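#struct-pred

JT: dropping the chains for the assembly here, can someone run the whole complex?
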Amino acid sequence: MDKKTFSELVYEIVRMVPEGRATSYGFIARAIGFPTASRRVGKVMGECDLPDLPAHRVVNSQGILSGRDSFGEPDLMQKRLESEGVEVVNHRIKNWKSICWNPLNEI
DNA sequence: CTCTTGACGCAAT
DNA sequence: CATTGCGCCAAGA
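RK: done, full complex below.
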């Protein structure tokens, strides 16, 4: 009965990301028990339409806004991040090393 | 079944 | 940081 779909597990982690922070597909994949499924995470995000899902806090391992193109508006993702206090330059999070949030460290 | 593609990751250069 | 090559897994043609 506790059979959650891959997508649900992904959403669960994404919703845990605090403001002013961001996490990567790889971190999420490991957090839900699929250490090598980073690619699937990305595919799920591309399909997600949930308005309450802070997808803008999900980037790749380098802190690059790889999904900015799927937000409908070109720089909506960057706008949202900057709105939370995250500095973004050229589709990349500045100081990513300090901004990245590791769910495995919090759970 | 094979081939391609995808909001990816990582090591080497 | 940019590029290249390889790995990984699922869905569609």
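JT: nice. The mean pLDDT of chain A is 91. Residues 6, 34, 36-40, 43, 62, 92 of chain A lie near DNA strand C (CB under 10 Å from a C1').
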